[in-house]
Amino acid sequence: MVGLIKAISYRQSLEEGEELFPKDADDKIIASPVDYVDTYKAMEKLVEQGLTKSIGLSNFNKRQIERVLEVATIKPAMLQIEVHPYLNQQPLIDFCKLHDIAITAYSPLGSPDRPWAKPGDPQLLDDPRIKTIADKYGKTVAQVLIRYAIDRGIVVIPKSVTKSRIIQNFNVFDFQLTLDDIKEIASLECKGRVCMMGDTYHPDYPFHDEY
């Protein structure tokens, strides 16, 4: 089956071999010497060969996207990044809109079940300010968070393995947030990234930049 979108992430630029996550003697991920720009150029050939419909990026920052755009003959269709009220990503989203690159938001509910969470870490689904808005519409906090992404023009991919919650996650098209609601939720921005990724020493680690 032909894929709709194939995306490249900086985390895919690891040393090739039998190990899925190759590590050195200091238990650090071993980076590939291949430039992600060259990988993107190889992905363009997949489109030309009819093996995928579109190609995109994941966890790239503005500077890295600009490097790709400088050489791309096929513009990235999508950028997949962590987006939720604690991490609105508005500057990066605005940059992508300027270049007609769509945004897919992962962890839109703040990854409440993330195993690396520490006791006392904020839980987006427990935020009373969003709960107040949810109560106003007779919706769950999760539904409001999904609707928030939709109302921002973002593709949103919430994760659940529970049938009832999956059904709830689809039930978000019978209401719309007001501009005041959106402003209130946006005010929760605190650069609260929940998917930091541990390989900060990777030469292409994207989160050192402002956006």
What are the key terms here?
211 residues, alpha/beta, five-stranded parallel beta sheet, globular, oxidoreductase activity
Number of helices: 7
- SSE string: EHEHEHEHHEHH
User: Structural class of the helices, strands and pairings?
Assistant: alpha/beta
Q: What about the largest sheet?
A: 5 strands, parallel
Our Rg estimate from Cα atoms comes to 19 Å
Number of strands: 5
Helical amount among residues, as a percent range? 25-40%
Share in β-strands: 5-15%
* Distance linking N and C termini: 35 Å
- Which consecutive residue ranges, at least 5 long each, have pLDDT under 50? none
Structure commentary:
The chain is of the alpha/beta class. The chain contains 7 helices and 5 strands, in the order βαβαβαβααβαα. α4 crosses α5. The chain is globular. The mean pLDDT is 88.
Topology:
Elements: E1 3-9, H1 36-48, E2 52-58, H2 62-71, E3 78-82, H3 90-98, E4 102-106, H4 128-137, H5 141-151, E5 155-156, H6 163-170, H7 179-186
Helix pairs in contact: 4-5
Protein name: NADP-dependent oxidoreductase domain-containing protein
GO molecular function, one term: oxidoreductase activity
Domain NADP-dependent oxidoreductase: 34-188
Quick overview of this protein structure:
This protein has 211 residues and is α/β, with parallel strands linked by helices. 33% of the residues lie in helices and 12% in strands.
